[in-house]
Amino acid sequence: MNSIGKRLTYLLIVAVAFTCFSGINITGAEQQGSLPSVFKQVDLGDTGLAGSAGYKDGVFTINGSGEDIFGYRDTAHFVYKEITGDFEAVVRVLDITNVHFQAKAGLMVRASLESKSEVVHLGTRAKDSNYEGEPECKSEFIWRTSKKNSKGVLQIKASNIVEPEGADPEELRPPVWLKVVRKGNKFSGYKSSNGKEWVFITEQEVNMPVKAYVGLDVCAHDKTKICTAKFEGFAIKQGVKVKIPSYATRINKTPVDNTKSKYLFIVYNDATYIPLTNNYCQVLGILKKGDIKTGISISLDKNAKKTDVKTELSGKYSVKEEYTAYTLAVPIDINTKRFDNVAVANPVLIFNNIIYFPMTQKFAGNEFNCKISMDKKTGFSIEK
């Protein structure tokens, strides 16, 4: 056989081998769809085995190895996004594989992606974990902060841990809801069985920068194994800066003066948002149910009747100023489908206690059969 024939044979063998073995999961990691573009993932420190993460139908599946989240350093897999300022993060931990009785998964806040970074971790363990015959499943609040020594040098302190006292282990087993609230440098941890009634765990002060990394973590507590955890209902309520449109806006050809209107349009991440007031919903054929505390449902109202636009000129705003709106952190259904507000670039917002919806083609056109247009001369228009 000549050199060309030998090379072709070699390539064929490699191709067959790759085809046969590429589908085998040699580490035990469970594969899912790719992460939403607003999230990133990283292995913190020397985890031993590489972690991975995916997202499908509102569920995050994260595979992580590593030794621990504790002491002077963390080794775990981390899925995150950057959040500036105060926030409220909630998630439901559905399941954790029991690869070690101290394997853990939950919410994490970090000052940096270095393993020795300041950290807040609120997590739980596998529902069937036990140590010497006793249930080991628990919710635990772990934090590490920094402090200047006598010479003024900033030093990282070993992390500490707080566990709920007198709690029934059954109430701490997955599925369980977890919540971390940041106010300045104070971080509070809560747990819940239903995501509505919360049990306070602890509040600790951590020297965290204003912009921090917030997300979900998984640690196997064994560098030779992979732990898989599943999460749903991940939501972050945070303040975001919005502006008043510098262009004209119309709804069903009726001009809206956003500097004077009580129910003005706003702009966030290059998308125009409109308030879902009762009048605007009727005009656009949108049916809105629920509230901003428990959850909302937004759907196409096929029985909507033609209604005139009503404007109320009691506002006072400037196109030169920035204003603060908040991301909605409760369940949202759009045309009966769950909308994951934390996983998109243009989330549903709250401004002046009114729900604001991004009127992009995806939503205004595809979901609610509205016609939108944007022109440099005439501005933004939405019609039904």
Explain briefly what this protein structure is:
The chain is mainly beta and 384 residues long.
Explain this structure.
The protein is mainly β and 384 residues long. It has two domains: 25-237, Sandwich (Jelly Rolls), CATH 2.60.120.200; 244-383, no CATH class. The protein is built from four helices and 33 strands. The model is unreliable at 3-28 (pLDDT under 50).
Task: Please describe the topology of this protein.
Blueprint: H1 3-21, E1 40-44, E2 52-56, E3 59-64, E4 69-70, E5 73-74, E6 76-84, E7 87-96, E8 104-110, E9 119-125, E10 130-131, E11 134-135, E12 140-144, E13 146-148, E14 154-156, E15 160-162, H2 169-172, E16 176-183, E17 186-192, E18 199-205, E19 211-219, E20 227-243, E21 249-251, E22 254-255, E23 266-268, E24 271-275, H3 278-284, E25 286-291, E26 295-300, E27 322-327, E28 332-334, E29 337-338, E30 349-351, E31 354-358, H4 361-365, E32 371-375, E33 379-383
Parallel strand pairs: 21-33, 26-28
Antiparallel strand pairs: 1-6, 2-3, 3-20, 4-5, 6-19, 7-16, 7-20, 8-9, 8-19, 9-12, 10-11, 12-15, 13-14, 16-17, 17-18, 20-27, 21-22, 23-24, 24-31, 25-26, 27-30, 28-29, 30-31, 32-33
